[in-house]
Amino acid sequence: MPMLVCRDVSAEIEFCKTTFGAVELVRRPGPDGSVAHTALMIGGAMIMIEGEFPTLSSRAPQPDGSSPVVIYVYVEDVDAVIERAVVGGARVLMPAKNQFWGDRTARILDPSGHVWTISTRVKRLRPRRGRSDGPASSRVDVDRACRARNLS
Fold first, then answer.
1. What pTM value is reported for the model?
2. What is the spatial distance between Cα 28 and Cα 142, in angstroms, rounded to a whole number?
3. How many CB atoms lie within 10 A of CB 71?
4. pLDDT in tens, 125-139
């Protein structure tokens, strides 16, 4: 389960609830009474939101979007989610656009500094002849692409 470290856990929880319709599964208080962490369900995926702690080396991202981690979520209506995200204080990094792989995809920077790629499947692509949609064929395609670019 991915864990997002935030300076203000309560604010991130509300952002996720409002933007993605996240459901809060559990909330744990810290020693000072503030929220230490929570587990949320976004669609069918669980995510943990945790506050910074001086005893842990994990820190919240800088607000400039320079985090090396991007959370990728599928939603039913990417445009509506982006609209709610912006109302909730997010900045659009990449407007929603139909992509060649069959998704309508956008990217945002949330108020806590986390980067999210948000997609809706808009077109089901047929696999090439002789291939399946399963993980094995995906792995073969990745391996072939890496070999072609001398990345493996």
1. 0.79
2. 40
3. 16
4. 676 655 555 444 443
